Amino acid sequence: MCKGYLSVRVEFIIKVMKMKLNSKIGAWINKRGFKNNYVAKQLGVSENTLSRWVNNKSIPSVKTLFKLAVLLDCKTDDLYERTD
Q1: How far apart are alpha carbons 2 and 44 in whole angstroms?
Q2: pTM for this one?
Q3: Where along the chain do its domains lie?
Q4: Calpha distance 44→38 (Å, rounded)
Q5: What is the rounded distance in angstroms from the CA atom of residue 8 to the CA atom of residue 6?
Q6: Higher pLDDT, 79 or 80
Q7: Per residue in 13-70, pLDDT tens?
Q8: Angle formed by the axes of helices 62-71 and 36-43, nearest 10°
Q9: CA separation for the pair 61, 28 (Å, rounded)
Q10: Which of 3.30.70.420, 3.30.470.30, 1.10.260.40, 2.60.120.280 would CATH assign to domain 17-79?
């Protein structure tokens, strides 16, 4: 297998993982009826940072993901859809 192919494949997998994670975060925030400014304040992040997670621009750290799961009263697995 060529290195270029592997690199593109890894980038694709990371992109898909980000999309699934972020789309679940937005859905759970809406499900709980929270406003983004409330969630951001509870997590100690800016609204811009939270918006970037929801809009597939970045992903939260593992520590923040755990905090988010507690806040939203769900499991981290609920926020991240496994594909295996």
Answers
A1: 43
A2: 0.73
A3: 17-79
A4: 10
A5: 5
A6: 79
A7: 777 777 777 778 999 999 999 999 999 999 999 999 999 988 878 888 889 989 999 9
A8: 120
A9: 17
A10: 1.10.260.40
